[in-house]
Design brief:
By secondary structure, the protein is an alpha/beta fold. It has one domain: 3-Layer(aba) Sandwich (Rossmann fold), CATH 3.40.50.150. It contains eight helices and seven strands; from the N terminus they run αααβαβαββαβααββ. Helix 6 packs across helix 8. The structure holds S-adenosylmethionine. S-adenosylmethionine binds next to helix 2. Keywords: Methyltransferase, Transferase. Pfam families: Methyltransf_25.
Length: about 210
């Protein structure tokens, strides 16, 4: 069964609030700032923004001269994100499908896709959307799930496919294929990063080839 709007609408409530508690921690905010490196005046895309937990840090970093476009296809997620952003001039929240949304090509300095690329039903199409939207030299930061096909990862993957209807398409491999290369952020002192070897998450960074 495809993971449809009703799925994410349902998860716009309590489960997202719990997930946000992890993601709005200061260490995760710091990780966004160092890995995405949004600068004053930048145009930033928050793809699959959910209820918008990362909008405060993004809008703060780009400042009054910058702009943040937050996109999600779930009306309930979008409603919550729009409520959060209602008083902010430098944030626009838009309901759209990341697999098909038409964004101005080569126009974003940075894209944050926080646990959203694997949440879609067409990972390559979303990575294409990101790549097209970024300007040459533009940056992607995509924390996401990564479940190896062996051992504990395989078991977790089967559960995740059943419960969350994950497609099983690997985000890191897909980003590497589209961008030509990608890095994985590691480090001590950032709990969500400092995980055991079978960690089911990966913090992906990639840069669109400046010569594109
Ligand atoms: C796990 S949530 C992450 C939300 C947010 N980025 C965060 O870090 O809390 C995944 C989000 O992806 C959105 N999503 C799933 N498929 C999508 C699609 N095709 N286009 C746009 N958003 C999508 C869901 O509605 C949901 O809000």
């Amino acid at each position: 069964m495809p993971r449809d709007l009703s799925y994410w609408n349902r998860y716009s409530g309590l489960p997202m609030t719990v997930a946000e508690k992890v993601l709005v921690r200061q260490d995760f905010r710091d990780l966004i700032l160092t890995s995405l490196a949004p600068r004053p005046g930048d145009r930033v895309l928050d793809l699959g923004c959910g209820t918008g937990p990362h909008l405060p840090v993004l809008r703060g970093a780009v400042g009054a001269d910058g702009h943040v476009l937050a996109v999600d296809y779930s009306p309930k997620m979008v409603a919550k994100a729009a409520l959060r952003a209602r008083a902010w001039d430098n944030v626009e929240v838009r309901q759209a499908d990341a697999t098909a949304v038409e964004l101005e090509p080569d126009s974003y300095d940075a894209v944050l896709a926080s646990f959203s690329i694997s949440a879609t039903q067409d990972v390559p199409a979303v990575v294409d959307t990101v790549h097209r939207a970024l300007r040459p030299g533009g940056r992607l930061f995509a924390p996401d799930v990564r479940l190896p096909s062996r051992g504990v990862g395989r078991v977790l993957g089967l559960v995740y496919r059943g419960v969350a209807r994950w497609t099983g398409v690997d985000v890191l491999d897909t980003v590497r294929a589209r961008f030509g290369s990608a890095d994985v952020v590691t480090g001590k002192g950032v709990p969500i990063v400092d995980l055991p070897a079978f960690a089911p998450v990966v913090m992906i960074t990639a840069v669109k080839d400046p010569a594109t």
